[in-house]
Amino acid sequence: MESMVMKNYFVFWTALIAVALFTGCDRNVRMGKGFVFPEGDAGRGKQAFTDLECYNCHRVEGVFDLPAPTASPEKVLVLGGKVAQLRTYGDLVTAIIHPKYELSDKWPGRANAGESPMRVSNETMTVTQLLDIVTFLHPKYQELEQLYSYRAQ
Ligand code: HEC
User: Fold this and answer.
1) 107 CB within 6 A, ligand 1
2) Ligand 1 within 6 A of 117 CB?
3) Chain-wide mean pLDDT for the chain?
4) Does the beta carbon of 75 sit less than 6 angstroms from any atom of ligand 1?
5) 141-153 b/e (C-beta count within 10 Å ≥ 16 → b)
6) What is the distance between the alpha carbons of residues 17 and 115, in angstroms, rounded to a whole number?
7) List of long-range contacts for 119-127, beta carbons under 8 Å, 24+ apart
8) What is the pLDDT of residues 2-60, one digit of tens each?
9) Residue 116 Cα to ligand 1 middle (Å)
């Protein structure tokens, strides 16, 4: 009897996941599984960060030898450091090539909702520079320690 119930649960969840996957594929053709990041080089990433003048608006947590930002101090966004949700490589790639996709709420200088002041470098940045920059930035993020847990006791 119990195994019957288990089996029904199994069928139910399999169907639900299949539906979620299918509708997911349909709606989110530009997102997705199957993205495997080739290895980049953090040293070259730091160089590319400088060459593309990303430092104009960003400081990087724990890195003190980048050129000083040119944006006014209240508009400078620190990359890395303690964050509530760790960034994946995919998050960082998206943030760099598609800045307005997810607007940071910790940036106080926002003028227009829905627009990012971040300059898009897609016309000039090489793919290698992108991969290297992400490899440089990714380890600078650390997960914020949870003060309390949402998990049921
Ligand atoms: C003109 C200013 C400016 C420049 C230049 C700039 N950014 Fe940004 N960047 C921003 C702002 C502002 C945000 C916050 C996103 C938002 O809310 O618009 C941001 C967000 C980001 C984020 C996401 C941060 C996070 O923790 O989620 C990354 C990564 C990033 N930028 C990398 C870069 C890189 C790499 C370059 C150089 C190719 C660059 N930025 C150049 C202004 C800039």
Assistant:
1) yes
2) yes
3) 83
4) no
5) beeeeeeeeeeee
6) 34
7) 121/52, 121/96, 122/97, 124/52, 125/48, 125/52, 125/96
8) 566 666 666 655 655 555 555 554 456 787 788 888 989 999 999 999 999 999 999 99
9) 8
